[in-house]
Fold:
Amino acid sequence: MSFFAEHGFEGQTRELAKRLRITQPLLYRYFPSKEALIERVYQEVFIGRWKPSWEKIITDRSVPLKARLIQFYREYAEVILTYEWIRLFMFAGLKDLGLNARYLKMLRERAFEKVIEEIRFEYGRPSTDELPTTDLEVEMVWGLHAAIFYLGVRKFIYSMPLETDVNSIIDAKVTTFLGGVRFVLPAKAMA
Amino acid sequence: MSFFAEHGFEGQTRELAKRLRITQPLLYRYFPSKEALIERVYQEVFIGRWKPSWEKIITDRSVPLKARLIQFYREYAEVILTYEWIRLFMFAGLKDLGLNARYLKMLRERAFEKVIEEIRFEYGRPSTDELPTTDLEVEMVWGLHAAIFYLGVRKFIYSMPLETDVNSIIDAKVTTFLGGVRFVLPAKAMA
DNA sequence: CCAGTTATTGATCAATTGATAAATAAGCAG
DNA sequence: CTGCTTATTTATCAATTGATCAATAACTGG
Structure:
């Protein structure tokens, strides 16, 4: 994972083997091809690092909404704001058509939709079952996600050190998000 | 540019030649090496597409600040939200250490600093000459930039169609930006 | 049309690279 | 220790790829 995050998927099997202190043909004892090896890297990083507990955090209504969102985004940021995650995700996007869209579809279903549902509930709006999430609502959540992700891009792709603390940026973004999203919510349901 | 944006800088000279309907050795009549060719692509896209008029738009105080920012970000977005610009910038970041940081340093000097200066002026705060821009101010501008850039990432790297109109997103972001940045500005100068 | 210059191509080299197979080393049950 | 299985290496293949060079085609001024 670390190797391909650094060199991209065009990194050579010989260099990878050297880094692992093994010989290059040994790789082919454990993986039928380079492509299969890369597929396994995807699996480990993007599927393996997803924490189901996040979904519980978002929907646990015994905790105030803002606190839930802050906790979720902090934990999520801790996982994706790593050298490996950010760069592999970008390499995958530039090369492969499909993996990223697939991952983000999952992210949308397991996180975005739930976040919107909880906001609807908080403000007494109809459930997303009754009234599907609007493009504008989704766009707001995307904006929050983009802000976090872009921190990783700056750090691990542009090699620019971050001057500001990540957690405080997340807190600020969540706050402005909650403040702003109210204005794009659907009208209150009539009794 | 289009070729390398699609295949990355590991795209082969033979394929490039085929796309240009020439033979591969002919490339070496016009470029000493593949690397020099790529260097030229950087030049054309990242330097060549920068419009000095943008700096005038930002600083033209005969126009209301919000209108200036919207115009600048709309024009800037029109240039960078292209298949070529977004993907080449990302490829460059993943491969080369330096180009992106260099470009963003320019962006910061020519645009970000000016934006902050104008906001300071608008709200009657000390000039950035007297009091350097703070990390928090810069972070706010980054957030705006990130939101725009991420639209390009979604479209051209993740292959996800954008449901929402870019210009209206920019308008909304500039509005919330101007609303939010007031709270992180330095205190008013004492007479 | 000619001579000289420029543009373009075909053939090919040397290095790289994913993959294979035979040979060797290491581990292990009895 | 023996026989068998598993792990690892050495040597090598075939395809790819950036680059070179001599040969050929196209163009240009006179």
About this structure: Residues 43 and 127 of chain A are 33 Å apart (CA to CA). The domain at 1-48 of chain A is CATH 1.10.10 (Arc Repressor Mutant, subunit A).
